[in-house]
Amino acid sequence: MPPIRVKSSSGPIGAPFPHGIGDWALTIARVLAGLLFAASTPCAQAQEAPLPKEARAAIDEAKKDCSERVRLKPKFVTSKDVNGDGKPDYILDYDKFQCGGDVSYFCGSAGCLMQVFASLPDGSYVKAWDDNVRAMRFAQVKGRPAIILDLHGSACNKAGYLPCPQTLFWNGKTFSSTP
């Protein structure tokens, strides 16, 4: 079977420059426009819950603190159920907040600022954590939602460079040290 050749008004598609270049450009433009339209439709976009107003306010405040251009790197905001209610909670990791050329604007020897916004039964969110940490993870401890932290040594009355592990438990309103 002979190859199928598709012709355009200025020559066959795939013809070397300059023949057919206008058709190629038009075809590429149409394909790109179709892809952009498809990507902008609600069905094609990832369905994410909107960021709660409490978390948006914290981000806006941090941006005001920076007098330069702010860049929020990937995973600055993550969503995870940290309090065990089945609803998304939000973690802001300021290690991924870039203020101008300063990549560690909210970081220091105590680690980086982390903010945790936990959902409440009334649909609002509470800022359940707002401090610098060296590391943070969430787990079930003694059957309860908990936040496991590595803090600056001074939080444990030690030298700053020493580890200071702490486990805080969800009490229905915030994370606290009493289980």
Q: Ends: how far apart?
A: 77 Å
Structural class: alpha+beta
How much is the radius of gyration in Å?
26 Å
Order of helices and strands: EEHHEEEEEEEEEEE
Counted by DSSP, the helix tally is 2
Instruction: Give helix % range.
Output: 10-25%
| Shape, per Cα inertia axes | flat
User: Mean pLDDT across all residues, rounded?
Assistant: 80
Report the uncertain regions: 1-21, 24-29, 31-47
**Share of residues in strands:** 35-45%
Whole-number tally of structural domains? 2
List the topology elements:
Blueprint: E1 7-8, E2 11-12, H1 21-40, H2 53-65, E3 70-72, E4 77-80, E5 89-93, E6 97-99, E7 107-108, E8 111-119, E9 125-133, E10 135-141, E11 144-151, E12 164-170, E13 175-176
Antiparallel strand pairs: 1-2, 3-6, 4-5, 5-8, 7-8, 8-9, 10-11, 11-12, 12-13
Summarize the structure.
Helix content is 18%, strand content 35%. The protein is α+β, with helices and mostly antiparallel strands.
Structural overview:
The protein is α+β, with helices and mostly antiparallel strands. It folds into 2 domains: about 20-45; about 55-175, no CATH class. It is built from 2 helices and 13 strands, in the order ββααβββββββββββ. It has helices at about 20-40, 55-65, and strands at about 5-10, 10, 70, 75-80, 90-95, 95-100, 105-110, 110-120, 125-135, 135-140, 145-150, 165-170, 175. The strands form 4 sheets. Strands 4, 5, 7, 8 and 9 form a 5-stranded antiparallel beta sheet that branches. The chain has a 4-stranded antiparallel beta sheet with strand order 10-11-12-13, with no helix packed on it. The chain has a two-stranded antiparallel sheet with strand order 1-2. Strand 4 and strand 5 form a beta hairpin. The longest helix is centred in the N-terminal third of the chain and has 20 residues, at about 20-40. The termini are far apart. Mean pLDDT is about 80; it is low at about 1-20, about 25-30 and about 30-45.
